[in-house]
Each structure stands twice: as structure tokens, then as C-alpha cells.
Amino acid sequence: MPETNKLRSTALAWLGRQEYSLHKFCEKLKKYEATEEQIELILEEFCQNNWLCEQRYCDAYVRGRVNKGQGKIRIRADARTKRLDQDIVSESLNKAEVDWFEQARATYDKRYGDKPIKDIKEKAKRLRFMQYRGFTMDEVNFAMNNNDDE
Fold it and tell me: Model-level pTM greater than 0.90?
């Protein structure tokens, strides 16, 4: 069991390098063999001082996923596996102000460019790729049809 002040300093250093979700931060403290009491004290202090902020983490998480060309469905699903609060994730998605149709088109263009679809098998493959990236059928159809017209 590490001393509380040493643990606090180490935890601050972690936050100096990157943002953490509350769940991930707790897990990291547990791996460092902190007691439940120490974890509770550190979390309370860090949240009060806004050093650890779930909203800020979700905003950064959503921004990063959007920059990777992912859709809303994929972002929500991955956030759920990371145990992020879905209400906060929804708020971050709304704040991001992304045109999901344009996002789908950009992702499709980046992957396939202006290569024409040869057959139904190729079209199905592209459709699965776009669904895997987290886009709705409307967004996928927009991206694929918009590309075919050009």
C-alpha cells in the first residue's frame, strides 16, 4: 500500500500526460495497489479541482473517433465498452456538431476513392465496411450513391 501523498503525486503525473475516464483512472489506481479509501479521497479531490473530468474525457474521445472517420453508432458502442456514461457521450456527440452524412462520405472516399463498384459482392463488402465503421444505412447509401454519381 503506497503512501497517500506519493500516490496523489503519481496520479497527478498520469493526468499530466493524458486524460482518463473515471473508470480507467480507478482501475489504474487499483493496479497501483491503492486502498478503496485512498481512491475515494483522490477521486473526490481531483474531480473537485477539475483535474479529472468525465465530460472533458468524453469530448476528447469523441473528437478522436470522429477524426478516425468513425460514425455515431461505433463511437457509442466503443464508449459503452469503456464504461463511459452514455448521457455524457451523447452530449459530446451533440457538441461535436458533425455532419454524419459528410463524415460517411469522407470515410468512404478515403477508403475507396473513385474506384467503381464491380459487382454485387463488392458493393456488399463496402456496405459491411461502412456499417462496421458505425454509420447508419441512410449515411452509407448517401456516401456510396454520392460517390457513384461523380
Answer: no
